[in-house]
């Protein structure tokens, strides 16, 4: 009977053994706070917490130094402010070489993003040739 219940629930998804990612997800850190909250209180409570960013883990307090807001009325306001400061995108794993990252920072990500836009156009042209 237990086997039938598992089959009815759908297939089991097995997680791979991918490389670990350093830092906590921003959404998790933001959900631990209450809102409205002053930036100084965010820094006091979670400033030392390392969050995941496209450039690798960074202390939330350091990220908030680049933010102009002094008060966050909602969780989304904090998340948006942090994302505007650090950007959004893939987060590097601890073994960056495996994912093609070579430690060159933003330029690599920017070039890849630009190339992907051009390669879409280029793929269409290559197919026509």
Mind explaining what this structure looks like?
48% of the residues lie in helices and 6% in strands. The radius of gyration is 20 Å and the shape is globular. It is mostly helical. The C terminus is likely disordered.
Relevant terms:
single chain; 129 residues; mainly alpha; 2 domains; two-stranded antiparallel sheet; 48% helix; disordered C terminus
Brief write-up:
The protein has helices at residues 2-9, 26-31, 39-46, 60-64, 75-86, 106-128; strands spanning 37-38, 50-51, 58-59, 71-72.
Task: Furnish the topology, listing elements before pairings.
Layout: H1 2-9, H2 26-31, E1 37-38, H3 39-46, E2 50-51, E3 58-59, H4 60-64, E4 71-72, H5 75-86, H6 106-128
Antiparallel strand pairs: 1-4, 2-3
Termini Cα gap: 59 Å
The overall average pLDDT, rounded, is 76
Total domain units: 2
Pick out the low-confidence regions: 96-129
Tell me about the largest β-sheet: 2 strands, antiparallel
How are strands sequenced across the largest beta sheet? 1-4
Helix percent reads 40-55%
Gyration radius, in Å: 20 Å
